[in-house]
Amino acid sequence: MYKVVLIDDEAIITEGLQKVVDWEAHGCQVAALAQDAASGAQAIRRHRPDILFTDIKMPGEDGLTMLAGLKGEFPRMQIAVLTGYRDFEYAQRAIRLGVSRFLLKPSKMDELNEALDYMTGVLDRLPPEEEPQPQPGEEDPNSFLVRQAQAYIGEHYAQHLSLQDVAGHCYVSQWHLSKLLNKHLGQSFYDLLNAERVQRAKDLMEDPSLRISKVAERVGYADTAHFSRVFKKLEGSSAGEWRNTHCGR
């Protein structure tokens, strides 16, 4: 039996799907219901389903990043999107990330059955343990995730940022995100974070009124000595020396 997880912020949707669809007739069983992306991701990691039905327009959630995260970490999992939004461009991007079906709410029973038939058919044809590769026209969800992680670091570098924070934003485990960053960029999370902070620090040091300690604080370092060590490691000179050489101060 193929395991299924249902995610929607409206419990009436997930509970209704669980009751009205003849899952057993499709060789499936519902393993879990969830009402938000965070609990849905937990359910997916716990049950490792073969099929996912999910909304992607839930409050406070980035649907495309969630899809990329799930598809990247669980490439064999077939995904059907349920949404009340008629956004053709959004649907196209979701499909390029490897979504099997994009269904508008309220979905008709024949649409749900067709989606299940299609997804179970794909699973039936997959060789054991072989990960499906992106098809022509599809976007690699892992590349999408790496770009999302880089963008998030670029927006939040000045905060107390951790790998867990970025992984949570991308809806993947810390282990999976760390593996992706090393594979696609050849860098660790902290390599990327420190490089971003040092670059921002160099921009700030153009202002002669800013002390080095204040620059360090503004780019996310609570400890000036730590900032100095990181800066020298990346730039080959201290922050003060760099400022004197490049800014004439």
Strand order in space, largest sheet: 2-1-3-4-5
What ranges have pLDDT less than 50 throughout 5 or more consecutive residues?
A: none
Strand count? 5
Average pLDDT figure: 86
Dominant shape: elongated
CATH superfamily of the largest domain: Response regulator
Q: Which class of secondary structure composition applies to the elements?
A: alpha/beta
Number of helices: 12
Binned strand content = 5-15%
- The CATH topology of the largest domain corresponds to Rossmann fold
The helix/strand order is: EHEHEHEHEHHHHHHHH
The helix fraction, in percent, is: 55-70%
- CATH class group of the largest domain: Alpha Beta
Radius of gyration: 23 Å
From the N-terminal CA to the C-terminal CA, the straight-line distance is 70 Å
Main beta-sheet strand count, sense and barrel state: 5 strands, parallel
At CATH level 2, the architecture of the largest domain is: 3-Layer(aba) Sandwich
Q: Count structural domains.
A: 2
Overview of the molecule:
This protein has helices at 11-20, 37-47, 63-73, 88-96, 109-125, 141-156, 163-170, 174-185, 189-204, 212-218, 224-235, 239-247; strands at residues 2-7, 28-34, 51-54, 78-83, 101-104. The protein has 249 residues and is of the alpha/beta class. It folds into 2 domains: 2-125, Rossmann fold (3-Layer(aba) Sandwich); 141-247, Arc Repressor Mutant, subunit A, CATH 1.10.10. The chain has a 5-stranded parallel β-sheet with strand order 2-1-3-4-5, sandwiched between helices. The model has no long low-confidence stretch (mean pLDDT 86).
